[in-house]
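This protein record is not my work; I was only asked to verify it. Take the sequence as given and treat only the tokens as open to question. I have pasted the whole thing underneath without changing anything:
***
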Amino acid sequence: MNGKPPSGIFEFDVSQSLKSILPAAVRRMVQAAAPMLDVQFGQATDFGKVRANNEDAMGSFLPSSRQQARSHGYLFAVADGVGGMDLGEVASTTAISVLTGEFARAQAGTMLISLLPRLIQHANAAVHDCTLAPEYRGKKMATTLVACALRHDQAIVSHVGDSRCYLVRNGKARQATQDHTWVNEQRKMGLISASEIAESESRHVLIRSLGPEMFVSPDTNALTLLAGDVLVLSTDGLHDEMSDSAIAEIVSQNKNIDEIARELVARAVEIDGGDNTTAQVIRVRSVEQVGMYRGRPYRLPS
């Protein structure tokens, strides 16, 4: 536009003005200083007092840069090979390997709520294919899987089986997953109470797991994160022995995150130790608040 703008109309493009005023190095510093998702992560696992091998598995994807934290995010996952079958450790490690590997190779900016269940489907196919391999032919294997992907201020949780995700906020734990077990289905139908589940001999009978079928249907939901939140992923060796309040009390301590993960597992093994026990603990230190426009995130002013 030549000359002065028409009377009563004045538009000021802050981003364009910054480009013209600030040197490139300063602009990069301003962008780098913007609040973003920052987490601390710890994990621990234990054979327990009875098992001779560990059929639990765990894995993660940690971004290597701020740019990758925004384009991909973080991924954490825990799997529990189904006992009573032949190769639970093969099923759990295969599922974790496929999930974390394909997450790292996913296209930048892919919506996590659609990506995560798709990757779990791929993990299921890989476990199912293991049963067809010559060295495993005739063997049966299955595993549970719970995965949590974090980006901006969102956590996407997707799971199959009875491995769980908890959200601990202000010292209180909330289970963010629903067990795919026979007794939990009975509870939802009003046939059994929550207190009776712990005493039921069928409490570990799964109605969904990875491996037995060519296709599986994970449950997936989204959580909005706040600074100070703690996420806990666990196998049943942990949450079968510990109440929600006990889990919340331990993870709410002001301790090193690795120490907290070890304390969680050690406490569960001390109580019983009849199963492999695994926990991942993710402490959210800050988040990057975003809005959504046509399915794409945009940064909100801080």
Q: What stands out?
A: The chain has one domain: 36-292.
